[in-house]
Design goal:
Shape of chain B: globular
Largest interface: A-B, 128 and 104 residues
Order of helices and strands of chain B: HEEEHHEHEHEHEHEHEHHEH
CATH class of the domain at 122-384 in chain B: Alpha Beta
Helix content of chain A: 25-40%
Helix content of chain B: 25-40%
Radius of gyration of chain A: 27 Å
Bound molecules: cobalamin, iron/sulfur cluster
CATH architecture of the largest domain in chain A: Alpha-Beta Barrel
Number of strands of chain B: 10
Number of helices of chain A: 17
Structural class of chain A: alpha/beta
Oligomer: heterodimer
CATH topology of the largest domain in chain A: TIM Barrel
Distance between the termini of chain A: 65 Å
Distance between the termini of chain B: 45 Å
CATH superfamily of the domain at 122-384 in chain B: Dihydropteroate synthase-like
């Protein structure tokens, strides 16, 4: 059942109802609400695991399980979960597991390139509103089609990175050789096709690894393969319906959309698996400049992030091409039910003293980190008072009354800002100018209206701090 | 169809609170809990795996050959249809444009080509400003430097060099805080632009609700019949006066609200008293990739789906100020060498912002970087043509 239609009461009625608090909630109803919101998992209610509740457990499991199976790849800290989604559109609930991005290497790549690419994939990081955005997997392709060469490459890669691996080759003998080298790392096997499905299924079962089902642009075969493999006993499947750029983008997006639609709206069980896209196909054609391949790859990758892909294999590793992708998926996979917010508190920058400026901002993560990075890079010693605006940006918060003179005055008291400095001047954002009089009245502090954009803070303070006595 | 109980377009949170409110009326003996305690909280960034404690599937005989299956294309009849809005008028229709462009008319979500192909191509209009000092990122400005001082030349450059199918002219000089230019001066510029190019045009104000109406009034009258797209009417304007103007002189208008489905409805509803539906395009605000694109995307997607499901107040073509992508620092800022060159980072930022919104349902794009506009145009071609694909064996590619 699509998540949006589940009510906490339905769930509550199946829980033990003893309010024993084993789940660390105040009572069963609160736990039910958490379950419906997918903020808790069933096994946190330990009594429910007792045999007498088996029937209830099974019913709850069926009620709560995501329409798209959550498939784990890899082991240890960097293991990733693909899928585990409940809805087609993010506003209907939220998306949970961001599209995992895999960078490829091949077993015939020159050593230097092989190592450099693995290093990029492993170490890539971008700090974005308090989060560290990273890449997620390494795809190792066998272009040699030689069991020994592949095993050696796979072994080497495994030694260089802790990223989850995808082993890519359709020849089962070569795959087996790769699995014998790194099977315990729980790599994703790429791929079972019409021709090799049985051998690949046996390998997946033997090594307990998830398996990709590949049938490019042939959804009948894809479904037939998924059904067969499921019956064969392979449960952790990932579907690859094929990816094409340019002319083929329409058919590509159609397939991803139809697969996700049928899995969620029609609850087709043999289609309820994560989807894998392969924008790396953008490199098939030799372009005048590889920049063009990479650009095309970004175009198809971002379209697939928007249209339901749970994992992508890409080749381009330039910063300009990876940055929009990691940010786009972060954006679409944030919870639309609640803005990304930071703690409301006073943050100290540099080494402020009792004469240093006190600045005001809101606790919307984007606002806070923009302001903080401006203050940091300009090396301003100051106090930044972050008020709780329920995660809303300055201008929206002022317009929507999520930040008012009262909440600001209260925050000054609560954070004991008066003990930090001996002056009583508060520098507020230009976009909160219309609160200046009211804040002054409510708090007794002298309000100074700063620039519109936080990039102007340093210049403003240089010029105008300390303020002239009135 | 399976389950189609879609009774709302509210986010789940609201839905849940509703069900909880109902729950309060049920008496439950062993539960003492107030509504407040039930307020649902979610830690941002928390990623939840599914509970994977099921039972093993029943042991069955393993299949020895492929089991048959056929994939059913999920067709769907939507109760609603997006209205069609025609921009620009040719001589035979009372204007002077070489062609007119129609947007809207969709009967399925954006590029769900398997359900229904979009009858019209989304349009990309190039932004042109009447104020040479308009703040622009360097990567954008370099393409317009020679024409910044001459608005008509600027429009011409967009059409002749970059193949703009429409011009989106913004009057910034009329802003009381900039030059407070007179409506008369704006009329003159508008006429020059209409002379310089023969594509349909849109005319935008400065955001001051009173001044914009004064300027729109002056321009609408002298351009009667041109079917200009006025950008925009907002809730804080004199809606009746603006709408009457659009209606009287045969123009169209963008109804602009900021990221709120209910306000978008409210504004449309108010406009319906004075204006036929096929004159209204709606804009629910565009925020840049990394700077609120998630809000922009979701509000647009929700509006579009609601319109298709039969909401009569949201079934208008959507407009996006995609140039806003440049508000993201990552689009223009100098960053470390690992993120270079910024000449690519900027246009790809505008492209990805546009692409994402194209898939949410946008029909009218306002853009600036020629490469980004070209890329989006190509994407639109590819999505409209709906050709079938050839597969590539990427696994064995020697790269
Ligand atoms: C995204 C957005 C939303 C999102 C909010 C997302 C969020 N979590 O904040 C949503 C959709 C929820 C929203 C809602 C509303 N919004 Co709104 N929103 C925007 C939008 C598009 C972008 C805002 C943003 O994220 N800016 C980026 C952040 C980083 O900016 P910032 O917080 O202001 O911080 C900057 C500066 O203030 C400054 N700064 C910050 N701190 C400090 C500190 C000091 C000391 C200094 C000197 C500077 C400084 O530097 C920062 C970086 O530049 C703007 C339009 C626009 N393009 O600006 C409208 C806008 C701000 N919203 C507006 C309005 C009216 C609203 C609503 C009241 C109603 C509505 N929907 O229209 C509600 C209120 C919400 C609420 N419940 O309180 C109006 C405000 C008009 C006004 N001036 O009164 C705007 C301008 C749109 C418009 N033109 O109508 N909004
Ligand atoms: S652990 Fe289970 S039975 Fe105990 S309070 Fe939580 S939900 Fe209720």
């Amino acid at each position: 059942m699509p998540a949006k239609e589940l009510s906490p009461i339905e769930v509550y009625q199946l829980l033990p109802g003893t309010n024993c608090k084993e789940c660390e909630e105040t009572n069963c109803m609160a736990f039910a609400a958490k379950l419906v919101n997918r903020e808790a998992t069933l096994h946190e209610c330990t009594p429910l695991l007792e045999p007498k509740y088996k029937e209830a457990f099974d019913k709850l499991w069926a009620l709560l399980k995501p329409s798209i199976r959550a498939v784990e790849v890899g082991t240890g800290e960097r293991k990733v979960t693909l899928g585990g989604e409940y809805v087609l559109h993010r506003h209907e609930f939220t998306y949970f597991n961001p599209t995992a991005i895999a960078i490829d290497v091949s077993d015939e790549m020159p050593e230097e390139e092989f190592e450099a690419r693995i290093k990029t994939a492993t170490d890539f990081k971008y700090d974005y509103i308090g989060m560290t955005l990273t890449l997620d997997m390494l795809a190792i392709r066998s272009t040699s089609n030689d069991p020994e060469i592949f095993a050696a490459a796979v072994r080497k890669a495994a030694g260089l990175t802790d990223l989850p691996l995808i082993l890519c080759v359709t020849n089962p003998a070569v795959m087996e050789s790769g699995l014998s080298a790194v099977g315990e790392r729980k790599p994703l096997i790429y791929a079972a096709t019409k021709d090799n499905w049985k051998e690949m299924a046996d390998l997946a079962l033997m090594y307990h690894c998830p398996l990709v089902v590949s049938a490019p642009f042939d959804l009948d075969s894809l479904k037939s393969l998924a059904r067969t493999l499921w019956e064969y006993g392979v449960e952790d499947l990932v579907l690859d319906p094929g990816t094409q750029i340019e002319d083929g983008i329409s058919a590509t997006l159609d397939n991803f959309t139809m697969l996700r639609w049928n899995a969620i709206n029609l609850e087709e069980e043999h289609l309820g698996f994560p989807l894998l896209g392969t924008p790396i196909t953008a490199w098939a054609e030799k372009a005048v400049d590889p920049m063009i391949n990479e650009w095309n790859e970004v175009v198809v990758s971002s379209s697939l992030i928007t249209r339901f892909a749970d994992a992508l294999v890409i080749h381009g590793v330039s910063g300009w091409s990876l940055l929009p992708l990691v940010i786009l998926r972060q954006n679409l996979y944030t919870d639309p039910r609640k803005p990304v917010a930071v703690e409301a508190e006073v943050i100290t920058f540099g080494e402020p003293d009792e004469n240093s400026p006190v600045l005001l901002t809101t606790n919307f993560a984007l606002t806070y980190y923009t302001v903080a990075s401006d203050i940091e890079s300009a090396k301003v010693d100051c106090y930044l008072m972050v008020v709780d605006s329920e995660g809303i940006s300055v201008e929206s918060a002022v317009a929507g009354r999520k930040m008012t003179a009262e909440t600001v005055a209260e925050a000054i008291k609560e954070f004991k800002v008066g003990d930090l400095v001996k002056h009583r001047h508060l520098l507020i954002p230009g976009r909160a100018a219309r609160l200046s009089g009211e804040i002054q009245e409510a708090s007794g502090w002298n309000v100074i209206v700063g620039p519109m954009d936080s990039s102007g803070i340093a210049g403003y303070i240089d010029e105008k701090w300390p303020p002239e006595p009135e | 169809m399976g389950e189609k109980k879609e009774k709302n377009v509210l986010p789940l949170g609201v839905n849940l609170l509703e069900s909880l409110a109902k729950f309060q009326q049920i008496e439950l003996e062993d539960v003492e809990i107030s509504f407040d305690e039930l307020e649902l909280r979610f830690t941002p960034g928390m990623v939840m795996g599914a509970p994977q404690v099921g039972l093993p599937p029943p042991v069955k005989a393993k299949p020895t050959s492929l089991l048959e299956a056929s994939f059913d294309v999920p067709l769907e009849d939507y109760a609603g249809r997006i209205v069609e809005v025609t921009l620009g008028a040719t001589k035979s229709k009372g204007g002077s444009r070489k062609y007119s462009l129609t947007i809207g008319g969709e009967m399925a979500p954006a590029f769900y080509n398997f359900q229904s192909k979009s009858p019209h191509r989304p349009v990309i209009a190039f932004d042109v400003f009447d104020w040479p000092k308009v703040p622009l990122a360097k990567a954008v400005k370099m393409h317009y430097r020679p024409v910044l001082e001459d608005t008509a030349e600027w429009a011409k450059l967009c059409v002749e060099k970059f193949g703009a199918e429409m011009i989106n002219l913004h009057f910034l000089t009329i802003d009381p805080l900039i030059e407070d230019a007179t409506p008369k001066a704006a009329v003159k510029t508008a006429e020059e632009v209409l002379q310089a190019v023969d594509v349909p045009i849109a005319i935008g104000g400065c955001g001051d609700p009173k001044k914009d109406l004064d300027v729109f009034t002056a321009i609408a009258e002298v351009t009667e019949g041109e079917r200009i797209l006025f950008n925009s009417v907002t809730l804080d304007m004199d809606i009746e006066a603006t709408a009457n103007l659009i209606e009287k002189y045969g123009h169209t208008v963008i109804a602009f609200t900021s990221m709120d489905v209910n306000r978008a409805r409210e504004l449309n509803r108010k406009l319906y008293d004075f204006l036929p539906k096929d004159r209204i395009v709606m804009d629910t605000t565009t925020a840049a990739l990394g700077y609120g694109l998630d809000y922009a995307f979701t509000v647009m997607e929700r509006s579009r789906l609601a319109g298709l499901k039969g909401d009569p107040e949201l079934n208008h073509p959507l407009s996006s100020g995609t140039t806003n992508a440049w508000a993201a620092r990552e689009a223009w800022m100098k960053m470390g060498p690992e993120w270079a060159p910024r000449e690519l980072r900027g246009p790809i930022w505008e492209t990805v912002t546009g692409l994402t919104l194209l898939l949410a349902g946008v029909d009218y794009f306002m853009m600036m970087h020629p490469a980004a506009a070209k890329e989006l145009d190509k994407m639109i071609d590819n999505l409209m043509s709906a050709k079938s694909a050839e597969t590539v064996d990427w696994v064995s590619l020697k790269l």
